[in-house]
Structure formats: structure tokens, C-alpha cells
Amino acid sequence: MYLSRLILNPGNKAVRRDLADCQELHRTVLGGYPDLNEEDADAREKFGVLHRLDIHPRSGAIVLLVQSLVNPDWSSLPAGYLLIDTDLENPACKQISEQYGGIKSGDVFTFRLRANPTKKVGTSRVEEIKLGKPKSNGKRVPLKNEAEQISWLKRKGDHGGFELIAAKAIHELADVLVKEESPQKGAYLKGNQCSNGTVNNRLSFVSVLYEGKLIVTDACKFQDTLKAGIGSGKAYGFGLLSIASARGD
């Protein structure tokens, strides 16, 4: 696995376009991988690509992190896309397979995750299914309550080989910080074409930034979680779980 760090040039037209539209950023990110058809919906999964935009806490630089199963090639980025006036290697890419392969159950990490927590509503109840009514899968709606957002991540941990380090009662999960962010502008979808030839569906995501501390309960599952990401919207900058060793643990 590989992890790239790209420091973006906010004065570049293509960067401003990508920051304004997550579908455009998705296309730019996939352009770093070989033999891709931009219309191929499986391309992201094929190369295991996850990405996230961060703002550097000290410099204020716009940092694009990209994780993938194969070594990317960023030479095709638009001219001026990356910031030149920086002392850091840009772009930078490192192999992380060995680091992730050495993770053990009981290891403690600090983490950061931008996710799109959702739940399904309108699904069929057991009683309805027993009565022979058609099964309904319902629709996904965003979770906007902080307690629900934390519970969502706990459930992901139950299946993903980790537990959130928590206190009890009102201070439950006190080491976890949830930052509600503005809905991210999405992309037009195919279908529902208007009479004038335009499309009127638009993706939007509730973006939640999770930061905190976790403990690995199942190393194999956790490594799979790191590789696959968490939640939906992975093509649009959600799901990349970043970890660092927790000092003092």
C-alpha cells in the first residue's frame, strides 16, 4: 500500500475547480493511476484509492492525502497544481504495507477520519416480511446528531477490528472529537434529465471529521479496514482512516 501527500497550490485554476466539486477532485486523483477509464466506476476499487483533504494546522496549506494499493504517478497533474514554495517534498509518496502489516491486537493509535455517517430508513420490518409484503431497502439519510454519529463509528469499529477508547456516561468517548463540517458540493448524477438536457440530481454529503484514539481488537480485521476505508462516499473524499502511534500508550 502507498500513501501520497500532495500540497496543493490554491492559486491554481484546476485546484480551485477541484476544491469546489468533489467529482472533479475524484477524476484528478484517479488520473494518478494507470490504464484508467475515467468513466469506469470500478477504477477506485480496483486500485483501492481513498483520499482526504486536510488543512495543515500550522501552515494552513491544503494537503491532499491519497492511499492506494499501487504506486501512483502524479506526473500528469495539471501544470502548477502543486505548491512549489514549500520546504517539503511535493508530491511525497511512501510505502506503508510493512507498517500496517506490523499492527497487532492491543495497539493504540490516534486517528483521523472524515466520514459520511448514514442510516437506512423505511426498510421493511420483520412483521411485514412475514406477511409477504414486498421487501423495501429504504433509503439512506445522514446522521446529524453527534451521539448517533459516535454510535455509527462504534458499530464500524465492532466490525472493523477496533474499539474507540471511551469514558462513561456523558463523558463517553471523551477522547473522540466530532467536527460537523459544511455539506460538500457533489456531482451531477446520470438520469432524471430535464427537458433542456440538463440533469437535476446533485449529490451532497454530510461531512463529519472524527479525531480521537482507538485500540485494535482484531489486527487482521483492522488491517482490512485500513485498506478498504470506512463508510460510504469513498470516491468523494470519505473513508480514509489515518492513524499514528499514541504516545504514552
From TrEMBL:
Gene3D superfamilies: Crispr-associated protein, domain 1, Crispr-associated protein, domain 2. It comes from the Archaea. InterPro entries: CRISPR-assoc_prot_Cse3. It holds the Pfam family CRISPR_assoc. This is Type I-E CRISPR-associated protein Cas6/Cse3/CasE. It comes from Methanooceanicella nereidis. The gene is cas6e.
